[in-house]
């Protein structure tokens, strides 16, 4: 089964051809990061317009790179939520048009279920059940993946997502957008024990997260440096912030894995490419005899290959969407 997958939920226009959910025949990503850097974040209207300009070209490239044609494709997979409505609509309209023109089935995919499914691509032996820590720009969830396409959320952030916290802190310490990779890099030169930033626990919700506290603590630290006319040690602040976030993510994931008897743990979403998180999770999982899986960085941040992987398992279950498929900006995990 070959699926042409399309992703346009945020600021990446992406298309991919994926065979049997795990074999990536092509993975084309046109990122708009440079464009949005000017404004310090994603501007929705600009994102939508850019998707329209790029989408046909990106799809053509994906087909060509996969050495295939639309006739040879079995289904069209597309992200229909969550995300920016105008951005999502471009991919959804395109997928519907291709589905109508070629008479091939249309399979709508949840963007975050796509992030989770990125783990299937390079880990051919990975099968549910497993526990997945989802850490992206807009989401932070602990999820039990019980079966392909069957999810139970056991924990979530109460405020900022992990990636959002990285981006906001990076902006505050002058690293610019997008902040995650920059904090990751500069932290390697810093002392992660230089400043003790808070780790938030939430009463009666052992698997929930909160990152607004650590973000405020960083801002307070910066302000107090300015008041005292001390130089801000950017690398130390970054490393200490990153350490506080990683600490909470790892501790809570391991606790959940033990509580729910999960011997397999996956990480998904843009922050899953964070080197400190990967290292700390590796050490903790080894200690607890848990198998750890994570995608290569290119499959962690937004891409269409992960949508193709998720679409394949939906397709196999019989999920088909009609030409009335709409973009759903606040689509819930597990919603069809
Ligand atoms: P969502 O998937 O929740 O809709 P999104 O698609 O914008 O949000 P992703 O593409 O999954 O998010 O990930 C982007 C986020 O990942 C950004 O917040 C970025 O800063 C963060 N990120 C990327 N690389 C790293 C890294 N090495 N360390 C930390 N954060 C990172
Ligand atoms: Mg993006
Ligand atoms: Fe994403």
Automatic annotation (TrEMBL):
Catalytic activity: L-threonylcarbamoyladenylate + adenosine(37) in tRNA = N(6)-L-threonylcarbamoyladenosine(37) in tRNA + AMP + H(+)
Annotated residues for binding of substrate: 134-138, 167, 180, 184, 274
Example of a GO biological process term: tRNA threonylcarbamoyladenosine modification
Note on cofactor: Binds 1 Fe(2+) ion per subunit.
Keywords: Acyltransferase, Cytoplasm, Iron, Metal-binding, Transferase, tRNA processing
Cofactors (names): Fe(2+)
Gcp-like domain mapped to chain residues: 23-308
Positions contributing to Fe cation binding: 111, 115, 302
One cellular component (GO) term of this entry: cytoplasm
Cellular compartment(s): Cytoplasm
Primary localisation category: cytoplasm
A GO molecular-function annotation: tRNA N(6)-L-threonylcarbamoyladenine synthase activity
HAMAP family for this protein: TsaD
PANTHER family: TRNA N6-ADENOSINE THREONYLCARBAMOYLTRANSFERASE, TRNA N6-ADENOSINE THREONYLCARBAMOYLTRANSFERASE, MITOCHONDRIAL
Record function comment: Required for the formation of a threonylcarbamoyl group on adenosine at position 37 (t(6)A37) in tRNAs that read codons beginning with adenine. Is involved in the transfer of the threonylcarbamoyl moiety of threonylcarbamoyl-AMP (TC-AMP) to the N6 group of A37, together with TsaE and TsaB. TsaD likely plays a direct catalytic role in this reaction.
Family: Belongs to the KAE1 / TsaD family.
Protein name, entry field: tRNA N6-adenosine threonylcarbamoyltransferase
Organism: Anaeromicropila herbilytica
Higher taxonomy: Bacteria, Bacillati, Bacillota, Clostridia, Lachnospirales
